[in-house]
Automatic annotation (TrEMBL):
GO terms for molecular function: dihydrolipoyllysine-residue acetyltransferase activity; lipoic acid binding. Its cofactor is (R)-lipoate. It comes from Marinomonas ushuaiensis DSM 15871. This is Acetyltransferase component of pyruvate dehydrogenase complex. Its EC number is 2.3.1.12.
Amino acid sequence: MSTEIIRVPDIGGATDVEVIEISIKVGDIIEVDQSVIVLETDKASMDVPSSMAGKVKSISVKEGDKVSEGDEVLVIEVEGVEASAPEAVKETSAAAPAPAAAPVAAKSSSEAKVSVPDIGGATDVEVIEICVSEGDMVEEGDSIIVLETDKASMDIPSPFTGKIGKISIKVGDTVSEGADILMITTESSETPASTEATAPVESAAPAAESTATPVSGGVESVNVPDIGGAEGVEVIEVAVAAGDKVKEGDSIIVLETDKASMEIPAPKSGTVKSVSINVGDKVSEGHPVLELEVEGSVAVAAPVAEKAAPTASAAPQASVAKAAAPVDQSAVLSTPSTKVHAGPAVRMLARELGVGLTLVRATGPRGRITKEDLHAYVKAAVQKAESTSSGVGTTGGAGLPTVPDQDFSKFGDIEVVKMSKIQRLTAQNMVRNALVVPQVTQFDKADITDLEAFRKGLKGEMEKQGVKMTPLPFLIKAVAQAMVANPSFNVSLMADGESYVQKGYVHIGIAVDSPIGLVVPVLRDVDKKSVVQIAKEANELIKKALDKQLKPIDMQGGCFTISSLGAIGGTGFTPIVNCPEVGILGVSKADIEPRWNGKEFEPRTMLPLCLSYDHRAVNGGDAGRFMTYLNSLLSDVRRLSL
Ligand code: CAO
């Protein structure tokens, strides 16, 4: 690293030329040929480009100043250049543009390969996000991919400004230092230095685990861990405050060099007592970050009790203040930003919340989106959604379209009954799903004659074990198998409108007609369970539903729903997709029908199936294959892995 001076080049003998614009600021990372100031004579204006790439340390001129050839413009910190100052000055002048013309006109495009920088010796690190697409314009420092080890995730920023060309990796790939990421076409007269040559973060990111040094009373000091020898690394985000509870592995601060950002995770679970670091601080290994009252440590009781008193009295005030705080609608951008700057922790949180980052207003340093921005966005988006839904004519948040206010009592006796919370929520969800999901329903009948014979043979034996064996567990198992074979049914669309989540687990919801309304408890990892195990668990969940004992967690995480009206009757119906799931199977009552077997009509037990799907995620062909496969499993019980 050396410091170089950029001076005013030969400007055709003109002297005392006015500086009309300073195009950069201290701390900016600039490229070769990037315009740093604009000069104007009475004849023309001209850009003065930098002859070197580096970080602006100081700017020696201001707007309105008059300059001549050789005057100092700025001081730049250049990596890997050992040239002495006078030589650098000479080079700078030589490389400078001709006067009164467009000095930057000599630019040319060059394609550069970007590869994985030194990531601290970590190998086979998973790519969890590709932040760019071919054709995107990126600026130096924009995240291009995010890698994740079991210790930390890290953004790999673009080393150049330019246009993204071919991308050589995809999400899920595992990479090591030197692996090709993508090509960038840069606007420069020089091919930029390779990422490998300049990546300074080294082992920091993947191995960065903060260290906790025990002090007294269960309180431990958390310091900046080994960050690969990097010094003076800027703190760009402090993710916790005194009083926050953190879990081991939660991000506590984010550091950023000019090449990468890295999260420093909490080394243990506990409560943050005090934070000794601020955004903008420059830190190195060992720098104190915070004091952590470690969860479960012997001496924790006393400090927690001490804390409890003031917290308890402060709590109501705090919540009142929170409730009264106005929601800032400007947290949601009206037009999506083309560039998103966010650290791995924020990206991870956004993924968890299903939030696309392009509409989130950034208030962090260098236009980065912080966790607070994300929270503000969610609050504003929720408020907007709620006000919109009441604006389109719903009553009391029930999601029911406004109906004319009629006096039914003039036609006879009436009673006004308050809907249960479940009924109101169901109404809201139904309206949302019916309005949002372009759904198609297709019908089929499965010949379950053999399955029924098998089930009835099993029924008595299962009853002795207290397990009720209806067709439902077979249906659940068959659906799980069909989802594994047809993964397009095991997705959820993402809020950004550009991606979907492919799930690697198979959790199936069962619609239950309970005393408090329609509820959908979820059976987990069905593909890995036997029909008997599924029957037992379904029995338990249905019982819980009927006894009104379901907890919210029992009803979350479903990938697909089965709605069986088989015990009630009917020949078919069109179930509404339970968004964000993309498929639902309606089951009607099985009946004996005559079927032609090639020689004669035979009585067969036929089960009506009605498959609704979100046509944004599943196309007709996929649905046809899903249904046919499901039918084949139900028609031949031997194909069902019991
Ligand atoms: N055809 C013929 N008989 C059927 C059948 C079918 N498709 N499905 C179940 N049966 C039989 C069962 O075998 C059982 O008879 P036996 O005791 O003689 O074996 C009887 O009907 C009663 O079954 P059940 O209702 O107790 O159990 P289930 O496993 O079929 O269903 C449950 C459980 C919770 C899904 C059901 O009770 C329920 O609540 N369904 C309503 C779901 C609903 O409201 N959906 C609409 C939502 S809008 O899309």
